[in-house]
Amino acid sequence: MPSIKEIQEDIIDEFSMFEDWEERYQYMIDLGKTLPLIDEQYKTDDHIIKGCQSKVWVHAQMDEDKVAFTADSDAIITKGIIAILIRVFSNQHPKDIIEADTDFIDKIGLKEHLSPTRANGLVSMIKQLKMYAIAYQTQLK
Amino acid sequence: MLEINKIRQDFPILNRQVNGKPLVYFDNAATSQTPQQVIDVIVDYYSNYNANIHRGVHTLSQEATDKYEAARKTIQNHFNAKHTYEVILTSGTTHSINLVANGFASLLNEKDELLVSALEHHSNIVPWQMLCEKTGATLKVIPMTNEGELDMNAYVNLLSENTKLVFVNHISNALGTINPIETIIEKAHQVGAAVLIDGAQACPHIKPDVQALDVDFYVTSAHKMCGPTGVGMLYGKEEWLKKLPPYQGGGEMIDQVTFEKTTYAGLPHKFEAGTPNICGGIAFGTAIDYMNAIGFDNIATYEHELLKYGTKKLLEIEGLKIYGTSKNKTSVISFNLDGIHPYDVGTLLDKMGIAVRTGHHCTQPIMDFYKIPGTVRASFAFYNTKEEIDALVTAVKKAKMMLS
């Protein structure tokens, strides 16, 4: 499994091929459409992160010493970004997840989606991923 | 006839680009844009006579006081209030509503009922819920119909001698419906209830006459009508403003202060504790003058044309549904594309330089009624054009293509 940093580099490479916003957004929309991200049974209020604009559901489980995330959203662009975030954070050691930053989002031109005022649930989602990682890290000790 | 190209030159912001495209600003129901005439007044205030009002004997203070009080007079004339002191300058609609709601805390008991409409903005719901929690009074809801109108039969049935207050918006921010406030006020008065009308969405389109309406309270914000943010108005009938206790204590609102007892200033100062938004108040007056120079009849006629054109063009898009289909509405079009989340549409429209509002528009009960997470809302002002609506339609089609 490549490291978080390596996956982020890959994503930056992939996005550098896109010529304009349309290609970038079409890619995210297609990601959002094609990926089944979360088991229906987890799309409950226990797993919800309410943004003002869109909703996000997150589920985490420990797979040996790695954390596996699944997530979903009712808005497809949000879901596309979730797909990217899951690709970066899922199946990693809790410690690496806790220490990871999300600067790569700026580099792929999606910074505005992670603004705290955007209220799409993504900022809270990243916080939630890290909280899960912290919880599992404590278990590992 | 409005000379739109000439009017547009008054608004410097309309020349800017967003994401490399000419800005199409269709979020007027949230905040209208500011004409140069108003910007100039703001610059002039801070450049030439910035000072605290009412208390200073020096020239700057006197000049600022004169202009601020002249603005109050302009507002009085515009809304046709009987007395200048019935115009309380606040930080905006929300502040005005909270001021009244707070004042009623000492006037209500557990038997009393308040009526709110299903079409309200959260700011005309939550302060009253807080008031009910404090006093034990009951909040009842005037239901809405599928067209986004109020169910007036249900309203009349809800009224009783226990009804103490009715609060309804003049125009719905989420749907654009113009509510029949004349009837609402008349019926409420028949059972002895007072009425507060939230005019935030109406004032950019209509010139309300508070005496003709016989309304008890009328509230609005400057930033919806070409003025700056952070300033607004509470109109209240003298008898009510005298009955309500002060909202906030502080400077400006007192007559005599001793540690034993403080007496309050008369109207309007009783409700204007602290240093107000002086520059904002003055600019509010200028904004009203600006809009009156264009003329509210001209504005209404032109905006209605935009509404008709926009509705027709948008409905040509397959799978597009408009929420709020009252015959009586202003230039607000709230819509969704079948199976597509409004957030996605709004995000893509922004990429194409078009500013719309997406989400629940602070009216979650309306969204719950339609069982939707939100809408895309395009709201037009008198400086918008049919060409801009064409750009919106093209962009919505493109968004639909990308998202389907």
List keywords for this structure.
heterodimer; A: alpha+beta; Sufe protein. Chain: A; three-stranded antiparallel β-sheet; 6 helices; 50% helix; B: 404 residues; alpha/beta; Aspartate Aminotransferase, domain 1; Aspartate Aminotransferase, domain 2; 2 domains; seven-stranded mixed β-sheet; 14 helices; 40% helix; Fe-S_metab-assoc_dom (chain A); SufE family protein (chain A)
Outline the structure in words:
The complex is a heterodimer of chains A (141) and B (404). Chain A is of the alpha+beta class and 141 residues long. Chain A contains 6 helices and 3 strands, in the order H-H-E-E-E-H-H-H-H. Chain A has helices at residues 4-16, 21-34, 76-89, 94-99, 104-107, 122-140, and strands at residues 48-50, 55-63, 66-73. The model of chain A has no long low-confidence stretch (mean pLDDT 86). The two termini of chain B are 41 Å apart. In chain B, 40% of the residues lie in helices and 17% in strands. In chain B, strand 5 (113-117), helix 5 and strand 6 (138-142) form a beta-alpha-beta unit. Chain B has 404 residues and is an alpha/beta fold. Chain B has 2 domains: 4-27 and 296-403, Aspartate Aminotransferase, domain 1, CATH 3.90.1150.10; 51-292, Type I PLP-dependent aspartate aminotransferase-like (Major domain) (Aspartate Aminotransferase, domain 2, 3-Layer(aba) Sandwich), CATH 3.40.640. Chain A binds chain B through residues 21-22, 25-26, 29, 52-55, 74-78, 113, 119-120, and chain B through 19, 340-341, 343-344, 347-348, 351, 358-360, 373-374, 402-403.
